[in-house]
Design goal:
It contains five helices and seven strands, in the order H-H-E-E-E-E-H-E-H-E-E-H. It is of the alpha+beta class. Strands 1, 2, 3, 4, 5, 6 and 7 form a seven-stranded antiparallel beta sheet that branches. The protein is globular, with a radius of gyration of 16 Å.
Amino acid sequence: MNFAWAKPALTAVAVLALGTAAASCGRNDNAGASAVADEEAQKAAQDFLIKNGKEEGVVTTPSGLQYKVVESGPAGGTSPDSNDLVRVHYEGTLTDGTVFDSSFERGTPAVFSPDAVVPGWTEALQLMKPGDEWLLYLPPALGYDDRQAGPIPANSVLVFRLKMLDVAAVPGGERNSVRQANG
């Protein structure tokens, strides 16, 4: 298998990895109004996830990650471990449909390791195989939690259309640790 696509991996990490560092810098600590907004956002996120979890085809993992398989890749593919490189196309939206990032729009897939992104993606990627396309619903705790990340408000449920294109195995890591933990 040709992994020439993996060479520029460090330059294509995307908003998911960079947003984690940037989010801590953009935190708003106004106590009064911020606390009310945080509570409202947490309630909205909880309500969305309860309703979404009842939708046909939606699977909820023990961590709270929800996903729906849109398309399955060919049988026999290998799921990445925590430090393998993956090449994916994705589109991230808020629950109201607002798009905040899209590799599909850019026409360039993102390349990174599952341990370099938000926890919800780390978990989902280790369950997926090349060719899989899923809809992911990340509770705030598996996304940016109570931090704002660019256009993403604090305590937001993140919705992603995620298509895994390829996996480049890297020695080490924790192969299938998430899949084993989730049964």
